Hints:
Layout: H1 3-22, E1 36-39, H2 52-60, E2 65-72, E3 78-80, H3 101-105, H4 125-132, E4 137-141, H5 152-161, E5 168-172, H6 175-184, E6 190-193, H7 204-211, E7 216-220, H8 226-234, E8 238-242, H9 247-257, E9 261-264, H10 267-278
Parallel strand pairs: 1-2, 1-9, 2-4, 4-5, 5-6, 6-7, 7-8, 8-9
Antiparallel strand pairs: 2-3
Helix pairs in contact: 9-10
Bound molecules: SN-glycerol-3-phosphate.
Amino acid sequence: MNKLSKILGASVLGMILIACESTTDVNSVKGKDKKLILAHRGASSMAPEHTLAAYNKAVDLGTDYIEIDLRMTKDDRLIAIHDNTVNRTTNGKGDVRSLTLKEIKELDAGSWFDKKYSKERVPTIEEIFDKYGDKTNYYIETRLVDHKTLMESKLIDIMKKKKIKSKVIIESFSASSLKKVHKLDSKIPLIQLNTYKSTENFTSEKIKKWREYSSGVGMNAEIADKNLIKLLHKNNLLVYTFFFNNEKKLTKKVIGLGVDGIFTNYLDYAKIVIASTKK
Ligand code: G3P
């Protein structure tokens, strides 16, 4: 072998190894061989979303994962809350990012749902991990903070400290957030979320990019169809669907289509539909 072919051979091998290293492995997703029930914001049709009451119910009902939206407080603490303000889900007012954890902890996070939940507080991610440990799995949505990737390394540090890393999938609408996680720890399974309104948005360029860091996609159940799911699976991407409306009708549709899991607000119903497909 001459010198040039040796150099070329080594370069090709190097490129293959880099490709293998940078592509996430869907097999690292816990429970990927069954249809996963992801308790959307906890058991959110039964108790106030993102409170320990909602997570308790989800864990008791045997969810595969509790789904958690993360936001960062003024003093850089990671808390579970969906909106960028506390207005809808607490008795307070203001942007999450303009309030300290102490200020947010004073708020009632349950009465808006039912007065009997008035003692519920907005939980930190540490409190959630401490409470459930390895009794459940965690499907955590990261977001940009002040348009920057500020929460990723903090979250990973907490996951490691609480020895919970193998129980977590991270999802995000932000590709930069997911790429940051992938750079920090390429072993964490990642799911790229999108709000596409048409299957035509799933171009081969996008699928190729997602494959570089993601184990799958999270998408609107409304537009999911057989060909798209087949295409994503062929590209080694798992498919999870969420619902903006018509959840019960669409649950039957997407489970029938062969998605890998659903972000459900109705855990009992999701379990029945999934069980019926096994008969
Ligand atoms: O988290 C997955 C999906 O439910 C996204 O919607 O608005 O609940 O974060 P959202």
